[in-house]
């Protein structure tokens, strides 16, 4: 079901803190508010460090897979992975996710911030743009938007090298398409002033976002039926030629 309540007003986009003053809207936890306040005072420029935000399209392999092949109506999991490289540390993260609604139906999300991170309080489901008439276009492709994946600590966070699996998404494949070359699912900083990544010294990090792609194929039963139909049609044409 679409959640039109998650749409922000133009005033909130201009001043993200306005959402914090309305108890009926999403309320940032005190911990997050304090940490963002400290960051706003001390952070003057992005840190020269490395953080990669990846979509692991198949968490069962043990690697970070950027592509997956599934059948129509298959339900499957995708992990969101933060990889810290170089001298990177991480005290706070916040981002959103967009996905291709022509291939994917959103099913569920589970946030799993690893220690010492804590997930921030959320008062509203944060799913938007899941179908007409609420689907804008990302290029020529309608997209869904999952908001507010976040976590933080008032102490020191992890230091590179580190691989952090912070959330699991579940989707259902809805129609055959895709060839593995298009990005169907990607994280990003879609809410300026709210989304962001920050190091232990409160410096802002500039993450690299790596999307995932999907190839959706017909159900096996559909392929069998197509094969049978092709054989029947071929046999019919063969008999006609013999009679002629």
Mean pLDDT: 74
Count of DSSP strands? 15
Question: Beta-strand percentage?
Answer: 35-45%
Provide a count of the helices.
Answer: 3
| Large-scale geometry | elongated
Q: Could you describe the largest sheet, including whether it forms a barrel?
A: 6 strands, antiparallel
CATH topology assignment: Immunoglobulin-like
Overall number of domains: 1
Radius of gyration (CA) equals 22 Å
Uncertain runs: 1-48, 131-139, 222-226
Q: What separation lies between the terminal Cα atoms?
A: 58 Å
Descriptive report:
This protein is of the alpha+beta class and 244 residues long. The protein has one domain: Immunoglobulin-like (Sandwich). The protein contains three helices and 15 strands. Strands 5, 7, 8, 9, 11 and 12 form a six-stranded antiparallel beta sheet that branches. It has a five-stranded mixed beta sheet with strand order 6-10-4-2-14, with no helix packed on it. Strands 1-13 form a two-stranded parallel ribbon. Strand 8 (137-138) and strand 9 form a beta hairpin. The longest helix has 24 residues, at 220-243. The radius of gyration is 22 Å and the shape is elongated. It starts with 9 loop residues before the first helix and ends with a helix.
What is the gist of this entry?
The chain has 244 residues and is α+β, with helices and mostly antiparallel strands. The radius of gyration is 22 Å and the shape is elongated. It is built from three helices and 15 strands.
List the helices and strands and how they pair.
Elements: H1 10-14, H2 30-42, E1 46-47, E2 50-56, E3 67-71, E4 75-85, E5 92-100, E6 104-111, E7 127-128, E8 137-138, E9 141-152, E10 162-173, E11 185-188, E12 196-198, E13 204-205, E14 208-210, E15 213-217, H3 220-243
Parallel strand pairs: 1-13, 2-14, 3-15
Antiparallel strand pairs: 2-4, 4-10, 5-9, 5-11, 5-12, 6-10, 7-9, 8-9
């Amino acid at each position: 079901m679409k959640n039109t309540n998650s749409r922000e007003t133009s005033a909130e986009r201009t001043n993200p803190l306005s959402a914090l003053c309305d108890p009926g809207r999403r309320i940032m936890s005190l911990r997050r508010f304090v940490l963002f306040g400290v960051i706003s005072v001390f952070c003057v420029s992005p840190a020269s460090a490395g953080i990669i935000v990846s979509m692991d399209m198949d968490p069962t392999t043990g690697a970070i897979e950027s592509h997956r092949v599934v059948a129509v109506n298959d339900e499957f999991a995708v992990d969101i992975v933060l990889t810290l490289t170089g001298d990177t540390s991480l005290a706070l993260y916040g981002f959103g996710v967009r996905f291709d609604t022509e291939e994917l139906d959103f099913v569920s999300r589970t946030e799993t911030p690893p220690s010492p991170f804590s997930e921030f309080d959320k008062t509203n489901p944060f799913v938007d743009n899941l179908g007409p008439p609420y689907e804008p276009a990302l290029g020529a492709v309608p997209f869904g938007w999952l908001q507010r994946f976040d976590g933080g600590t008032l102490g020191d966070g992890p230091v590179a090298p580190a691989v952090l699996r912070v959330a699991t998404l579940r989707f259902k494949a809805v129609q055959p398409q895709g060839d593995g070359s298009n990005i169907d699912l990607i994280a990003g900083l879609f809410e300026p002033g709210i989304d962001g990544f920050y190091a232990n010294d409160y410096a802002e990090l500039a993450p690299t976002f790596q999307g995932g792609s999907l190839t959706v194929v017909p159900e096996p039963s559909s392929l069998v039926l197509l094969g049978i139909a092709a054989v029947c049609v071929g046999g019919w044409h063969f008999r006609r030629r013999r009679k002629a």
